[in-house]
Amino acid sequence: MIQPQGTRLVAGLFCQCRSAETHAGVDPGGGCGPAPVSPQPPQDSRSGSDIPDQACDVCGGPEQEHRLKVLFEILDVNGDGGICVNDLSIGLKKLGVHRTEHELRRMVTAGDKDLDGQLDFQEFVQYLRDHEKKLRLVFKSLDRKNDGRIDSQEIMQSLRDLGIHLTEEQAEEILRSMDKNGTMTIDWDEWRDYHLLHPADNIPEIILHWKHSTILDVGESIIVPDEFTAEEKKTGMWWRHLVAGGGAGAVSRTCTAPLDRLKVLMQVHASKTNSMRIGSGFLQMIREGGVRSLWRGNGINVIKIGPESAIKFMAYEQIKRLIGSNQETLGMTERFVSGSLAGAIAQSSIYPMEVLKTRLALRKTGQYSGILDCAKHILQREGVAAFYKGYVPNMLGIIPYAGIDLAVYETLKNSWLQRFATDSADPGVFVLLACGTTSSTCGQLASYPLALVRTRMQAQASLPAGPQLSMSALFRLIVRTEGPLGLYRGLAPNFMKVVPSVSISYVVYEHLKRSLGVQSR
């Protein structure tokens, strides 16, 4: 783990024309933002004399690009203009830096924008700059005294917050592995030089501030679960977060239940010949069953939050172990696979409740006396198979929803971190809500046709003289009779409830979190 010689060799290849203030996000000259550079005056490796002050390429000079080019050429072992995993392994070993194959793959994957399996020079430079920005955020969080240096006490306290308890001797050993000048403290340059060629996609400090599936409830529960740090798992804070999220979801769904029931009615009954508008839909519900009828189906929708969240979280943690990653947190692809499988397991476990929710939302006044009565009628008249109608499109819908939601959220998160994060990874309430709402909305939009077909299949047996169509047949019927827009019936009330759902769930979540003793950081 400790390669002080290798890190010094790597460190010498980076531009050293900037001050420490620049690295902390403050440009004393008023010119440029952070760049992967060191504050000391550069030394000419041939003569040992000071090189005159020279701006890096961000400021218009060639110094930084030249140094990065040297490092790139060292790592590009076969000289083909690209760094693959094999090149990276051999090149880093030459520099005395040893990384596992898993870590090397993560580095290449993180920077490989054109997906050709290797890093060209521009991708390599961009990866180092993006990675350095994350390292700087972590350095700022560790530097509790805000003096530009990290000592053993700060390391002990910060690792203790993440569930890792060290003695002072162990903390000093960590310091010695990074300390190049013998001061027993680590400045920004020593921290960066040691960690720069080590992958870190999901740094715990960032994870703490960027949870969104636990916080935000938009009525759909197939979003990829949030990551929890080791400390949150050890202290039991994870279940407090989940309970707070479940309570927030219950309040949020109850407040927006009329819009959700209207969406179901429009998905099932609206057509070219039976145009159902938002206003007329609400009037129709009130005339048929009174104001209370606006909340039909909400009870089972709230009840299923608990078991679904618990099953999904447990399945997610088990699948992470089965994947075999030795990392505390997963990369985006691993999260997508783990989250999608966990969502499929959770949905399979509670899917009969989804069918009951649809049937109860569509019921006429007096048709069922409650949830159990509805389940009894379905079982007696249609059999057990009725509780899994629409199961296939529901499972298929998990893939575009989870994939697009995760991809959009990670893109927005990383964009914010690169552009605006300076002293902390905390985005603030507005940015968190905006990113979470945007990503969830994109996921819903992509999976909506499958959700509509699922709802119609769940409702088919309850419709008088309605044909029992398969998923593909129902798709063809909708497109033939209503056109492609028919696959988006009910989209308007669905999107209308997104903003109030997110706002309500966040406010309630924060209140419940405080009540359960979860301390905000």
UniProtKB/TrEMBL annotation:
One of its GO terms (cellular component) is mitochondrial inner membrane. GO terms for biological process: left/right pattern formation; transmembrane transport. SUPFAM superfamilies: EF-hand, Mitochondrial carrier. InterPro entries: EF-hand-dom_pair (IPR011992), EF_hand_dom (IPR002048), GDC-like (IPR002167), MCP (IPR002067), MCP_dom_sf (IPR023395), MCP_transmembrane (IPR018108). Residues 63-98, 130-165, 166-201 form the EF-hand domain. The keyword Metal-binding applies. PROSITE patterns: EF_HAND_2, SOLCAR. Keywords: Calcium, Membrane, Metal-binding, Mitochondrion, Mitochondrion inner membrane, Repeat, Transmembrane, Transmembrane helix, Transport. This is Solute carrier family 25 member 25. It comes from Xiphophorus couchianus.
